[in-house]
Design goal:
999 residues, alpha/beta, Rossmann fold, 7-stranded parallel β-sheet, 31% helix, RNA-binding
């Protein structure tokens, strides 16, 4: 068995060595990081003890814990087991470290190892196991691999030679066509071989046109001993992207009258060779081994920054540690099992005002448990510290991306390599720069040599969680706020905008009936009303409406005091900037002391308060009480109660972008400051992205459901029944051209949104040469690339799409008629790795273009938006819809992504993958039928009605299985079906889930 590894293949390139066995045919085992010259060698390897031991750890096979003397099923459960409190306690009792390696047992009592499935099967289920769908699917897949290997092998004295991978071809050459000239030779004396046919697998029922064609030259197809036959394969493709096909050559041995097949895989990638070379994987993808942190038994406290004491808090925060029992329950079992156990044992059976605190405190602990473990992903080994008194500077890769998020006041642990296990020094974070942090340690910490290297651990900043626990601990539990019912709504008619006679500060609102009604309803509502919701779909001006309502409340009621919050600093800054008509004695913008002055908009700095040392703080209590409006983030809103401002001081609490905050975050302001008369106003859109929750368990239990979304499901917030009394839906869209707005409007907002944008903006790309239809400002560029991963990051990227995005940016920036700046262009990609690759390929081309995730663009807009959808998997048989589409198949992410553009929307993606999802298929049909499609042809009838129930993934899998079945039958092997779907899991998805910016 060969275990030779070709460096070129592993690095993602094409091997140029003609004698290299990997030149034509490569099989790789990602689990063991080995490459094999044929699928036969790969098949032998998968039965080896080396592979099975690893596979047992990755699958459901049993592992043995030498500490607890128990068996654990699979590596995922093993990671949870060794991270649990019970395991750690038993390890301590025996003087062992918790982070022991699992033992892979040859035999497990009462179980038998199924080598096909790499799982230990209980003896009582052994007979039945062989007839389970999972086992039979794996058996059939193994049979297919054997058939494929048989087809790709030269046989019967016939050899097929040539390089069947065309590599990366520039567009101009691909349009005219490039050729290869393989040869067939016969090395068996006295034999006569007849070439019957050469066909492409795409010719057998595929609706998609192939880039490849075969040309036969010699009419005489008899190949005698020591003779050769040459034929031509031509690759011709009009568009960028990747194509792959199977070439099947059918022979007949005229003496034996037996037919046989030799197959070859054809590949070509059309695109910019330099871009593909720049973006290729830096190293083969090897899943990062999840290690368990050994406990910190001795931590030498560091010097924390003075900013932690900048605010004169008089109300102490609770420590609120995760209960040991809950941590143990979270450490063992599958997500489904843990959720069931938590519902049964920890969470109240009914959520009401009495059980509210207990419910959400547990959800906070569950999320914190996951956040702690996600931080382990950023642990650094071999780190170097640079001393510049009084600080030690540490380079933190990904810091600028908030991966990890580090703020002034955080703690980072360092341990000199080779020192006593468990002994760590704590460094207080005093300085945060683009890629480095400045730490202060205890005076006993010394860097003795420039060659010293350190292990680094990032510790979770628990202050945001503790502030939420403080809110949950308060006794404000009013049903009219938490669980409003019709009986809480006054029966008197709500005031209408026609009868209120309010003169709008913003003249645009005076002509917008829904906005004006929302303002009137807020201004005229009686103290102690139910929360009022401004339901603001994309681009409808919900923040403008909220600001107008704040100004009207202040103008109408001289005793009004307002606390205005938003989930992020950028959103809070927007509120404050639009309230600057008020003086510095009336408006106060509070920033957390961890925030730097350079992060604050210049125009708002006069509305802040800083101590002599430069750290943001609050003025004396008497002055704080005189401010008519205080603006902060949701988490920082705890400052007002923390410094002693009494409950009920604020007559109104406003929360903008409320759908992006968790319910406990919103409750920091409400539960600590509201009384029986406080009115609450929320603005947001539950149909856009909710808060970022890292724990799949917490998401399942409801933490991802925001407060505004939960309210909107209650009877009194029905858009028609509650109009004007509890909710107003804004319907005039001021952002997008109607063609861009039309599809999300119909699918998410009942077609109620109206185009009201500035014609000079939304029509600015009509007639552009980029458009396929000059009056339709949407382009879908159909491209088949390859979604890659590299090194230890499970995040996906697609070189073909990144290069195509660059081409669009270059085209946009070079057009002198349709002038545009970098700041007018936004690029959205669902995977962090793709964002990095696109930034790399745009470096020096358009450095000012913002490239980010869907979450980073929520609430924003650009004249032009380009979306790279990334996923282009062709493993339809092996993977399920969730794995193939990943983050892309999420309606809210879709809604946010396609509603950011004002004048031009460009989507780059693989239609065969996107079309598996009914929502995407309907959107692609809309674009195709409107004349906005370019690139490779659509592979289905875009006029067919889309089945909202889905099933397209199953149909595609069935088609792929049919092709494999037919091929296997032709090879006289067993038929095949699919294999088990791959579980996406939290470990992968959280790499691309941004960290929330909370202070």
């Amino acid at each position: 068995m060969s275990q030779t590894v070709c460096p070129q293949v592993l690095s993602g390139g094409a091997c140029e060595n003609a004698s290299c066995p990997h030149r034509h045919n490569v099989c790789s085992c990602e689990l063991c990081n080995l490459v094999f010259a044929s699928s036969a060698e790969y098949t032998v390897h998968t039965s080896s003890k080396q592979h099975l031991n690893k596979a047992q750890g990755e699958s459901g096979a049993m592992l043995h814990c030498p500490v607890c003397k128990k068996y654990v099923s699979g590596m995922k459960n093993w990671t949870q087991h060794v991270g649990g409190a019970r395991h750690a306690a038993r390890a301590a009792e025996n003087g062992l470290q918790p982070g022991v390696d699992p033992e892979v047992p040859e035999n497990v009592p009462g179980h038998t190892l199924c080598s096909t499935c790499s799982s230990h099967i209980p003896d009582r289920n052994w007979t039945r196991h062989h007839f389970t769908p999972k086992h039979m699917e794996r058996e059939r897949f193994v049979s297919f691999r054997a058939a494929l290997d048989e087809a790709e092998r030269d046989k019967n004295g016939v050899s097929v030679s040539g390089n069947f991978d065309f590599g990366i071809v520039e567009g101009r050459a691909a349009k005219s066509g490039i050729e290869i000239h393989p040869t067939i030779s016969n090395v068996t004396p006295s034999s006569k071989i007849s070439l019957i046919s050469i066909t492409l697998s795409s010719e057998k029922g595929s609706k998609t046109k192939s880039a490849f064609s075969v040309i036969l030259h010699d009419p005489s197809r008899t190949i005698r001993y020591n003779t050769t036959y040459s034929f031509t394969v031509k690759a011709r493709q009009e568009y960028n992207g990747r194509d792959e096909n199977r070439l099947e050559i059918l022979f007949e041995d005229l003496q034996l009258r037996k037919r046989f097949i030799i197959a070859r895989i054809l590949r070509v990638t059309v695109g910019n060779r330099a871009d593909h070379e720049l973006l290729k994987p830096i190293a083969p993808y090897v899943p990062r081994k999840r290690t368990t942190r050994q406990p910190e038994t001795n931590i030498v406290e560091g010097v924390l920054p003075p900013s932690l004491k900048a605010v004169p808090y008089v109300v102490p925060l609770p420590e609120a540690p995760i209960p040991n029992g809950l941590a143990a329950a979270l450490s063992t079992g599958t997500t489904t099992d843990i959720v069931a156990n938590l519902r049964r044992s920890y969470l109240p059976p009914i959520l009401d005002s009495n059980t509210y605190p207990r419910h959400f405190k547990h959800l906070l602990w569950i999320e914190e448990y996951r956040m702690e473990r996600d931080l382990e992903h950023y642990d650094i080994s071999q780190a170097k510290l640079t001393a510049y008194k009084p600080f030690h500077y540490l380079d933190v890769p990904g810091l600028a991306e908030k991966r990890p998020s580090v703020l002034v006041g955080d703690r980072i642990l360092v341990q000199k390599q080779g020192s006593t296990p468990g002994h760590w020094f704590e460094g207080g974070v005093h300085v945060v720069r683009k890629e480095e942090v400045g730490l202060r340690f205890n005076a006993s910490f010394r860097v003795t040599s420039a060659a010293d290297r350190y292990n680094v651990r990032f510790k979770l900043n628990r202050y945001p969680m503790r502030r939420q626990h403080l809110a949950m601990d308060t006794v404000f539990l009013e049903d009219r706020v938490l669980f409003p019912l019709p009986l809480h709504v006054p029966r008197i008619p709500y005031p209408t905008q026609a009868s209120a006679r309010i003169k709008a500060f913003n003249p645009l609102i005076a002509t917008n009936t829904p906005q004006l009604q929302a303002v009137v309803s807020i201004v005229k509502r009686v103290p102690g009303s139910v929360p009022f919701v401004i339901f603001g779909p994309p681009g409808t001006g919900k923040t403008v409406t909220m600001v107008e309502a704040i100004r009207q409340v202040l103008a109408t009621d001289p005793h009004a005091r307002i606390l205005a919050c938003a989930p992020s600093n950028s959103a809070a800054d927007l509120i404050a900037a639009r309230l600057m008509a008020w003086s510095v004695d009336e408006l106060f913008r509070f920033y957390a002391p961890s925030r730097g002055k350079d992060q604050v908009p210049l125009e708002l700095q006069n509305y802040t308060y800083a101590r002599p040392d430069g750290h943001f703080s609050v003025p004396p209590l008497a002055r704080m009480k005189r401010f008519r409006v205080v603006v902060s983030t949701c988490v920082s809103a705890s400052v007002v109660s923390g410094i002693g401002i009494p409950r009920g001081h604020y007559t109104h609490i406003f929360v903008d972008e409320a759908g992006q905050a968790t319910e406990p975050e919103v409750m920091i302001a409400i539960k600590t400051m509201a009384d029986t008369k406080t009115n609450i106003v929320l603005s947001g859109d539950p149909k856009q992205l909710g808060p970022i929750i890292r724990s799949a368990i917490a998401r399942e239990l409801g933490l991802e459901t925001s407060y505004i979304e939960r309210l909107m499901h209650r009877e009194i917030y029905d858009e028609k029944k509650g109009y004007g009394a509890s909710v107003v839906k804004l319907t005039k869209n001021f952002r997008s051209h109607n063609a861009i707005l039309k599809f999300p409007n119909e699918h998410f907002y009942k077609g109620e949104l109206q185009q009201c944008g500035d014609a000079n903006v939304i029509n600015s790309y009509l007639g552009s040469p980029i458009l396929l239809c000059k009056t339709f400002p949407i382009v879908f560029h159909a491209i088949s690339g390859k979604d890659d991963r590299e090194a230890s990051s499970p995040s996906f990227f697609n070189r073909a799409e990144a290069s195509q995005v660059k081409a669009y940016v270059e085209s946009l920036r070079s057009n002198r008629r349709f002038r545009i700046t970098d700041n007018d262009i936004g690029i959205i990609a669902p995977y962090h790795a793709q964002c990095l690759k696109i930034r790399a390929v745009l470096r020096g081309v358009a450095d000012g273009v913002k490239v980010g995730s869907v979450e980073e663009f929520q609430g924003q807009e650009r004249r032009v938006i380009i979306i790279s959808t990334v996923r282009s998997s062709r493993e339809f048989v092996e993977y399920d819809l969730k794995h193939t589409l990943g983050f892309v198949a999420n309606p809210r992410r879709f809604n946010v992504a396609v509603t950011r553009a004002q004048a031009l929307l460009i989507v780059v993606g693989d239609p065969d993958v996107l079309g598996l999802d009914p929502l995407w298929r309907a959107f692609l049909n809309y674009i195709h039928n409107s004349g906005g499609w370019t690139g490779r042809d659509i592979s289905w009838d875009p006029l067919d009605e889309v089945d909202e129930g889905g099933g397209y993934d199953r149909a595609t899998r069935a088609a792929a299985q049919h092709d494999m079945n037919a091929f296997t039958r032709r090879m006289e092997a067993l038929t095949i079906a699919g294999v088990e779907a791959v579980d996406g899991g939290d470990d992968d998805t959280n790499v691309d889930r941004p960290w929330r910016d909370v202070e």
